[in-house]
Amino acid sequence: MPIKPLSSDKLYRVSELNGLDADCKSTKHLTPLDEIVGQERAQQAVEFAMSIKEKGYNIYAIGRNGLGKRTMVMRYLNRHEPNDKESSLYDWCYVVNFEETRSPKVLRLPAGTGTQFKKDIEKLMQRLVKGMPLAFDNEMYYSRAETLKNQLAEKQEGALANLTKQAKEKSISLSLTTQGDYQLVAMNGEELHTEETFDQLTEEERNQFDENINQFEAKLRGIVRQLTEWEENYTDKQQKLNEEIASEVIVHSIKELKDKYQRHSEVKHHLVALEKDILENLDIFLEENEEQVALAYAALDKKMPRRYQVNVLVSQDDNKFPIVVEENPNYHAIFGYVENATFKGTVFTDFSLIRSGSLHRANGGVLMMDAVKVLERPYVWDGLKRALRSRKLNLSSLEREVTLSGTISLDPEPIPLDVKIILFGDYQTYQLLQHYDPEFSELFRVTADFEDEMVRTDESEEHYARFISSIVHDNNMLHCDRKAIARVIEYSSRRADDQNKLSLHSADIANLLRETNYCARSSNATMIRTHHVEQALQNQEKRVSRLKDHVMHSFVTGTTLLDTEGASVGQVNALAVIATSDYQFGSPNRITATTAFGEGDVFDIERKVELGGSIHSKGVMILSAYLSSVFGRTSKIPLTTHLTFEQSYGGVDGDSASMAELCAIVSAFSQQPIRQDVAITGSMNQFGDAQPIGGVNEKIEGFFDVCAIKGRKPTQGVIIPASNAHNLMLRKDIVEAVEKGSFQIWAISHVKEAIEILMGMKTGMLTEHGNYDLDSIFGIAQIKLNGLRK
């Protein structure tokens, strides 16, 4: 029985939208889908990882760009609260460590209270800055301070007066020099001895004076020590008085804060330490040392002592789960950094200049990043693994780590880290990390594998229609009518290269809808209709089809030789796909085979000149094996065959031309001509079975376009493997041509069927004597080969 071409209904699967209600006329009547369609497997992986709080259950999301990985995860996280209700969010603040200023302390506060605590401290400081000088500027303080000073003066004067009196009784004067030193000098009556008068004294009198002076000098040294102790005692009493006065101001002001934050032990401890430190640094508030005060107030934002500021590193919303997307994952952006400030030519830093990173802001929630960007940035991957292993966020200076210098910098207290990391990347990056980084599988234990396509059913078409509706609603587009929805779904099947599948490359669908919306609005339409979708698709193709137009022009000018009518021996039209970065199209190629007396080898010219790839060479070897099984069962084939792609000046790879090559060789063997109005594509195995190939739609369309250029004939057509029939989603003009009978598409299961179509004869059956029917292609070829053997 002759092989029948496919009917037109097999070439394109129309979307009937049976899953939608009959009264649903447009996307306006469709509930938008709040999730990404067809990604149940990936969604379950994300849900599983988010449910486990143990270390290491971070997520690597695998899939090509445009599958909606980030959108799906964002929608899921926004829709689902974390399962662990006990975990609460915190605000993280850095404050000064009064005992060791190089190591700022961390305060953990309930979410939403960090900023309020900062404001409370600022109000406290404003009160103290104004109130402290007033407390020391009153008569009571002056009176008590004067009393202490007078008491010290009385003691000092009394001790010196007593010593002066004793010395005078021994005729010795105690006086104070202009340099501030005490001096003991012998007296001559009421006058001081001069050198002359002193020398006139007897030796015994001089010795007596020396002995008395030495005794009084010893007493004077004791009194001086006593004066120092009294001064120190006075200073302590003065400091105690100052602290008493200041404490009255501080206690009154800070009591409210202690009551307000009594449930937060860390804050209470900080307030106690702050109160103590203020008492020890009253000069900051009393402005006794101008230079010190100026530095103390060298704040970048408010006029208050830097020492007592609260640096709110992270302020969380108590009602919102933290979801952070880091678009620029460099070291500082992720882990934070410490700024430097300049004051009067001096560069300095402190805890108030610590700045947060993505990990700080995502603490308690999720941080999403692109895997390739993370791996491209220096030191980021190691830092990320270190943080995930320790579950602590150390803010270390990258400059110090890189330069290995001993520059003084801050060493802040680490912040406990509780975060889920989601990396988005392709499969190749995933494989590299698995292979080269043994820690990767321990830290990223969950893989969310995103599908490229989904099965096309009435139910999935309904989901897809709601997905289209969600894009329309999210982007405030014109609504699509029912036929436009169906056309977009059909386009999705074409993108998937399968009548029974839908592409999940959501970026392509979103881009098409945007361009369709533009076309509709440009024509002042109120709704997107089918012809708007078609116009957008034509515009898309026109923008990227320059190379196709150039190739097709070569058929117009005759530069590329190809026949689309008649018949030739050893010559067949094969089909190939030419691909650019964002477009692919089909183009027919002529394959020729010539024979010469030889040892039965098939000489692949493409391979010999290194234009043929390894897969193409494998295909030639497979067809050689089939040839041997057909014609070389009892003896060698006495012909050498030369096989090539004509006018092929670039690389050739793939085995989709192996059936065409076999037909050309059989034609050369039998000297029976091959129809040139039919093209063929498909690979084969050693038994001659037709195997599926890729790009079948583009290949058929390419030959159809060349036939239009060369001249249309109703006998023209294409042979494809039967296993590719489900991949057909052809252009409307080709479907119409097949329906009218002016173009044919045959789906075959074995290479013999292709030979019969191309040569118009049966291939023949093997008889019990090992020969083929004489009136068959194989029989004619066998007779010619047997003649050569003799």
List keywords for this structure.
single chain; 790 residues; alpha/beta; Helicase, Ruva Protein, domain 3; Rossmann fold; 4 domains; seven-stranded mixed β-sheet; five-stranded parallel β-sheet; 47% helix; elongated
Describe the structure.
The chain has 790 residues and is of the alpha/beta class. The protein has 28 helices and 30 strands. The strands form 10 sheets. The chain has a 7-stranded mixed β-sheet with strand order 23-24-22-21-26-29-30, sandwiched between helices. The chain is elongated. The mean pLDDT is 84.
**Which secondary-structure class do the elements indicate?**
alpha/beta
What is the second-level CATH architecture of the largest domain?
A: 2-Layer Sandwich
Strand tally is 30
CATH class of the largest domain: Alpha Beta
